[in-house]
Amino acid sequence: MNWTxxxxxxxxxxxxxxxxxxxxxxxxxxxxxLTLCGEALFWSALLAIPLGLLIGYTxxxxxAVTALTGVARALPTLGLVTLAVLLAGVGDTAxxxxxxxxxxxxxxxxTVEGIRGTDxxxxxxxxxxxxxxxxxxxxxxxxxxxPTLIAGLRTATVQVIATATVAAxxxxxxxxxxxxxxxxxxxxxxxxxxxLLVVLLAVAAQLFFSLLLRYGLPPGLRAQRAASRRSGGxxx
Length: 236
Known about the structure:
mainly alpha; MetI-like fold; 10 helices; 81% helix; elongated
């Protein structure tokens, strides 16, 4: 296979009339893919972030989190999909469970590390002026942990976008339909075009969160993050 083959397949894929409208159109498949990823990230955040806030603030269970997240990351996604199909049948659950298992660990670790990284003197000062533990957590620790939390969300999002292609194995939609169906029928333009779309979507998500970290944070947090990076570079 040479570069001419690849460019020809990509051109064939994107110029196919079926990719412009209908259930197999690029817009529809991208929408299905993003919907599935959004659901997985929503449930992952709902599970991981509150737990991470609690563990990060109290310091209890941090070692167990590190061990469990390491195990979760090593789990084979396709194997989890197969197990979920056997237990729950074919449907969204069969894909959401593995995707949640993939996305929750980086979110949990980022939340714990972000909260634990809050300046202890800042926390003590907040307690000294009469703030409750909940107020310290929400008004002091959480804003300070925001950059780390967003970085964890970026990692989880990119991983979920790349892995959500497995939805096609259980008959669901998304960009995996191009890849899996293309492999099954030896339709190389579909396989290559679908894989390219997944890569572009992951790159777009990476770029979005990078811009969010750079420009979307409050000015104080941006200055603090820049100072931290400069001091890190000085130490190296």
